[in-house]
Amino acid sequence: MLHHVLCQRPPTPALPSHIVEAIDKILIYQRHNRILIPANSIPLRTVIERKSKPSNAKKATIHVSLWRGDITTLTDITAVINAANSALLGCFQPGHKCIDNVLHSAAGPRLREEMNRIMKEQGHEEPVGRAKVTPAFNLPAKYIIHTVGPNIDRRSTTPSEEAKKQLASCYSACLDAAETLPLDVNGRLSIAFCCISTGLFAFPKAMAAKIAVRTVIQWCEVHPDTPITDIIFDVFTEEDLNFYSQELDDLEKTVANASATTVPKRLTNIVPPKGIESARQWIQEADYLIISAGAGLSASDGLDYTSSSLFAKHYPALLKHGLNRLYDTIGFSSWPSAAVKWGYFFTHANLILQWPKSTLYRSLLDLAERFGETRYFVRTSNADGLFAANGFPERRIATPQGQYRYLQCYAKCRPDAVFPFADYLEKTLPHIDPETCAITDESLIPHCEFCGTELTICVRGGSYFNGGPFEEQEDAWYDFLEEIESNTDDKSVVILELGVGINTPSVLRWPNENLTENSDGKVKLVRVGLGPSACAPFELVECGRVAVIDGDIGTAVGLLTA
């Protein structure tokens, strides 16, 4: 809510100083809870040799790296690039997921005040292809370099030559501006580029990547005396990652080491959040462990319901129906036919069934087994069954939202009208047309053997949900809760909450907070998530009952279990 309000607030009248100080305190608190990425921990991808003068032979080569991650988590970096609009005051629409919003949100209101001062002095909008420098305020970086890229008419088939030159000018201007900044204590000057103009400004991504890489390389070759030592291309999507990888692969001066030509999903040399030591100690000293997991855990393991690339890879036939992410299928009612709907259900069930085991779940299982089987329990809103698939005993797992492994009668005609999905998979999969994702033999669409009603996935989506298959799990969960609540006088409990979002907080999030708040300090909560899902009530954090870790779950689990 704070970020939304600040996003919409104009720079004038200025906020009172005590309000600004309070906001800064909150933003610094949030930064301290984040997993930060040192710029020098990102693997080298390409080097640019310095030429033209004998004196340059003693200078280090310019390092070029490629990374997919959150630019606001980069630390030990001189400057990050902001793709701004011509007003240079930020984006005033909270719903826009643009880099301008992201950076202003993390930097705080003093950034908008500074930009307003600069623009008042300038007296006109910022031209395309220029650059201006400001402090980064509450960001881990030291400075922000702001540039305005070309805004492309979405109706045009390709950018004009003028627009291409303007985009190239953005990169050159940012590099020119970066040269004016001081070196760090190690004598380095590092900058991170975002993808300029490829979001709302609609510059084609492949072409933009080509212009970005080639402009930066050419600029460095023309400026061999530059103090810049490190350049990072920071991308947000897998699609952009592929475009930049291809452009860098085409360069002649690539590093021969194979490990340097890959982009790791997780980095090892990171800056842990402030609360990691407390969280690790709580886990080590606890008598009981609760693993409370939401969709963020599955996403960290690759089964990301917000990923357009995952959906396009496994369900290309559904793109024409306006479906772009797995989340889009939840509650979707505009299927062209029952055959297509069930083609998707069967394809998705098979994908989950074949999902590979992972080191992330292995680490969680190793952690749980330290407590002994009767001293831990998993409660998850995920219906994918990945805990059981990775070796967790089903008797220690509760899935109150259901599981994909079952089909149920939509009419809920009787309590036992529930059927294992696997019984239908083997005979139906060969009859799914990959071009349409439709079942070619509609007699294979499953119906209730008791009343003839069409079946549906046994997950909570309305009053039709049949929770019968999960009652035994729920009973075991509440027995476990009763046991730990009766023993908290001399025993301690830690809740390891992983990727629990805010869409359905009554399932896991609020119960976790209530259990922590009402335990007289015997229950500690370690909340791991990204952004809003990593927020927690200040009073519980300040009294030492909650530790927050804002960052990749796999990285966080590695830190907590090391």
UniProtKB/TrEMBL annotation:
<dbReference type="GO" id="GO:0046872">
    <property type="term" value="F:metal ion binding"/>
</dbReference>
<dbReference type="InterPro" id="IPR029035">
    <property type="entry name" value="DHS-like_NAD/FAD-binding_dom"/>
</dbReference>
<feature type="binding site">
    <location>
        <position position="409"/>
    </location>
    <ligand>
        <name>Zn(2+)</name>
    </ligand>
</feature>
<feature type="domain" description="Macro">
    <location>
        <begin position="51"/>
        <end position="252"/>
    </location>
</feature>
<dbReference type="InterPro" id="IPR026591">
    <property type="entry name" value="Sirtuin_cat_small_dom_sf"/>
</dbReference>
<keyword id="KW-0520">NAD</keyword>
<feature type="binding site">
    <location>
        <position position="413"/>
    </location>
    <ligand>
        <name>Zn(2+)</name>
    </ligand>
</feature>
<dbReference type="InterPro" id="IPR043472">
    <property type="entry name" value="Macro_dom-like"/>
</dbReference>
<dbReference type="GO" id="GO:0016740">
    <property type="term" value="F:transferase activity"/>
</dbReference>
<feature type="binding site">
    <location>
        <position position="451"/>
    </location>
    <ligand>
        <name>Zn(2+)</name>
    </ligand>
</feature>
<keyword id="KW-0378">Hydrolase</keyword>
<keyword id="KW-0479">Metal-binding</keyword>
<dbReference type="InterPro" id="IPR002589">
    <property type="entry name" value="Macro_dom"/>
</dbReference>
<keyword id="KW-0326">Glycosidase</keyword>
<feature type="domain" description="Deacetylase sirtuin-type">
    <location>
        <begin position="269"/>
        <end position="562"/>
    </location>
</feature>
<keyword id="KW-0808">Transferase</keyword>
<dbReference type="Pfam" id="PF01661">
    <property type="entry name" value="Macro"/>
</dbReference>
<keyword id="KW-0862">Zinc</keyword>
<feature type="binding site">
    <location>
        <position position="448"/>
    </location>
    <ligand>
        <name>Zn(2+)</name>
    </ligand>
</feature>
<dbReference type="GO" id="GO:0016798">
    <property type="term" value="F:hydrolase activity, acting on glycosyl bonds"/>
</dbReference>
<protein>
    <submittedName>
        <fullName>A1pp-domain-containing protein</fullName>
    </submittedName>
</protein>
<dbReference type="InterPro" id="IPR026590">
    <property type="entry name" value="Ssirtuin_cat_dom"/>
</dbReference>
